[in-house]
Specification:
The chain is an alpha+beta fold. It is built from 11 helices and 17 strands. Strand 11 and strand 12 form a beta hairpin. It is globular and about 65 Å long. The structure holds adenosine-5'-diphosphate (ADP) and magnesium ion (MG).
Amino acid sequence: MTEPTATVGILGGGQLGRMLALAGVPLGIRCVVIEPTPGAPAGAVAEVLTASYDDQRALEQLARRCDVVTIEVEHVPIDSLAWLAARVPVHPSPEVVAVAQDRLAEKRRFVALGIETAPFAAPEELDAGYEAGTIVKRRTGGFDGRGQARLGPHASRSALAAAATSFGGRCVAEGVVSFDRELSVVAARGLDGTAACYPLVENRHRDGILRETVAPAPDASASMLAEGAAMVCRLADDLDLVGVLALELFQVGERLMANELAPRVHNSGHWTIEGAATSQFEQHLRAVTGLPLGEVGPIWPSAMVNVIGVEPEPARALSVPGAHLHRYGKAARPDRKIGHVTVTGRDERERDERLAAVRAIIG
Ligand SMILES: Nc1ncnc2c1ncn2[C@@H]1O[C@H](COP(=O)(O)OP(=O)(O)O)[C@@H](O)[C@H]1O
Ligand SMILES: [Mg+2]
């Protein structure tokens, strides 16, 4: 057997770990995953150590066998990452993951870098909620809109406190932003500090869950595209991040406001598998293993639709020209992301027609 190009350890074996490991195969990159849940998606393409993220024996295996360790989810114990980082390169670093785990630390970082964000404070610091309404969010651990409560204008101190208590106390309160739309930008930064940035994309959510990504974002002005790229690169440099970084944004008029960051491959970057010259998954592996980053363009007009709760008939989904089906091998459950479909088109009109056809099938 030939030697692998590199062996990469991944904390987390969900769909992101699976798509990372899959992207490693042509590069000769082997992935070893720690994942607590048996039968997780990454098992199809990676060696999975079924263990909790703080299992000492599993961590020792990763440190011994891997050239570098990365994550597919930011909610992993910092102590485990720090233990690994004392023995093997870890990208993103434990310090960066600690920022990404804490919505308050994240927003303070935005402010420190001059990046606009929604008004925010710890709920106990506020005499009253914001005029436009307040969202109380769990500082750590929320995802897909879970761990959030929306309060009306000028919420009382007791309403803020009650919302925070319902999430165990450690929360951030944010003013509601009446945005025109949601966008995101994904970039990768290599070991030598070079960066490659995908264009801004538009994200459409329902009930706090991402439903569709349209790439590149329709009708984005040149100045907004440049601003999105500048923001994510400024953050990546400031965090000295190695790997992929995603930044979720609100567009208000021509302004961009940062919502949250993720120092990892991101759902709004799945379109890059078929829509960009190098996928975010390959790009992340290249970055963390010290390989040159790939070109991001040329870019096809693309759209990604998440499969949530119910699987489509594969033949039906693929009956749409330009459609590609990704099944994660997860049991179907309401509100659970179990796959996605990407469509590309030669131009935006064709892409939009195909997107409408996919949407009709997936619902
Ligand atoms: N300050 C805000 N103003 C308006 N909408 C918001 C705000 N914060 C979050 N949302 C809405 O809730 C969704 C989920 O919130 P987010 O902070 O991104 O948490 P999650 O980690 O669950 O994705 C966002 O995509 C957006 O639609
Ligand atoms: Mg989000």
